[in-house]
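User: Continuing from earlier, I have the next pair ready.

Assistant: Great, send them over.

User: Here they are, in order.

Assistant: Folding the first of the pair now:
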Amino acid sequence: VQLQASGGGLVQAGGSLRLSCAASGRTLNSYTLGWFRQAPGKEREFVSAIRWSGGTTRYADSVKGRFTISKDNAKNTVFLQMNSLKPEDTAVYYCGKTRIVWSEWINHKQYDAWGQGTQVTVSS
């Protein structure tokens, strides 16, 4: 499976963006797709994840109520709708895949197939 993230950009605080993570190759039925972000000088940080089969989701506390993860089975794509954006959301956003259990979804080391990432910049 190869993943390609897109949809980033420059937005003012309070604005919205929708990121896409398009998957190609194998079926995603056995995978969880996760969004992580990485700001300069910081570790890669968990944002949200969704299990392809069943649609179970998980969010970081910092984005709960503002971000929504979803998927389109027909397009083999996962979306991250980001509303009420804050300057601290500025980072490169990556999507990855894993087969790990729910309790480990926040661990970026359990994911692979990272794409090149997409830059999100929120101005104050």
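And the other member of the pair:
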Amino acid sequence: VHLAESGGGSVQSGGSLRLSCQVTGLTDNQNCLGWFRQAPGREREGVAIIDVDGRTTYAESVKGRFTISRDNGKNTLYLEMNALKPEDTAMYYCVARQTDARVTVMPPRYYFKFWGQGTQVTVSS
């Protein structure tokens, strides 16, 4: 299984970015996908997840600003980030777990078996 993130970069506060994650190697679309992030000196935290049926869960800090989506035909996960703030600065990781379970709360990091290498997002004030 390989997860490859892209789309990170540097933007000013209030700007937008769209992250993508190409997912390869999973046997089918029965999986939960998501995004985690880690800022310097802070623990890795869940940002947004989308389960097998398209149900989404967001961290409180990004609700209303970020949108997660998936294109199963393209095996690609997206994270649309708007109204970015300096506190959104972090390395963003794509994550996956093969499961058909309903997911309605943000799982802990150990729930996800597969991780990408990360893409850096930097927001300047």
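Worth noting for the second one:
The mean pLDDT is 96. The chain is about 0% helix and 50% strand.
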